[in-house]
Each structure stands twice: as structure tokens, then as C-alpha cells.
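G., the chain you wanted modeled:
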Amino acid sequence: MHVGVLGGTFDPPHNGHLALALFARELLCVDRLILSVSDNPLKQRRSASDSQRKAMTELLCHEINRTGTFCDACGWELEQKRPSYTVNLLRFVRSLYPSARLSLLVGEDSWRNFGSWKSPEEIEELADVVVFARGAEHMTERPDAVSGIRFVEFSCPLSSTMLRGRIAEGQSVSSLLPSSIDRYIRREGLYGE
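Predicted structure as C-alpha cells:
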């Protein structure tokens, strides 16, 4: 079994996350994808609580799973009483899937700081690292050969930050989110001024 792990704040999850999940299933041959909802203290938060972000991520998984069960939302990182590090998440996932091949899916922006992450060597031992680059012109520090690191071009102009900003300005984002998440955001009154 091949298990992919994608961590993020998912504040909110959007069609870019949906596309990445489907890409992982179809082109990386991932059998199971875990979307781990985390809390990044470096990221500005608007108004979505941990439980709301987890609920929206579960809605995203429901959308992804319409074509077959593949994706699970995970709140393990939110439940930790200490700062959560990727290496700890991967240890947890390894305990759930002891014989699986693990792939950590990371965005290009996160990859740039990979060397400063807690235990990057152990991360590479626990999982293949797949970096989703926004395109060759954006990936300025891509090493030609890094053991265990795979670079995949994945151009997606969406970001949760951009969506929160548009919602706060009263703009529609319905074409940029799964409809269930759009309805949830409107029902909960998230990201407004």
C-alpha cells in the first residue's frame, strides 16, 4: 500500500487541494491519502477554529471520495499538547501503516525551509518526499539530484490566503471551492470582515 500524507492548515481547503489529491491518486499511484489538519503559528488566522478547519477538510475528503474511498481527514496534530512536527506526524502514520510506503507531499514554499525542519533526515527515512513545484520558473533552488526527493510540477494559482482575502472583501469564491465547503463557510460566517 502507498500512503500519501499532506499536512496543512486547510483554512480553507480549496480546489487546489482537491486537484492535488486527485493528482496524487492518479499520477503518483497513492492508495490512501491522509490530509492532516495542523496549526501553524506562523500563519495568520482569520476566524476558522480547529474544529471548523477539520470539518471543512472532512468535506473535502467527501468530495474526493466520490470516486472511491481514498482520502481521510486527520486531526491528530490538532490533538497534540506540544508543537507538532512533521516527523512526529510521520511516526504516527507509520504506526498506523507499518508496512506501507509513505510519501510526504509538500508544497514548494514549505520545501524551501525543509533543512530547518525538525529531523529532516528522519523524515526522508520515514517517507519519500514529493515536492509540488509551481513551475520551473518559480523553483529557484531545485537541486538536480537530492536523494529521496521528487519534484513534480503542479501549477495551481489558488491559495487559502487569497481565498480568505476575497471572502473578506465580499467577493464570490464559489468557483474556487467545492460547493459543500462554500456552503459551510457561508453558513458559519467564516472569513468575513
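The chain has a mean pLDDT of 89.

Shout if anything looks off.
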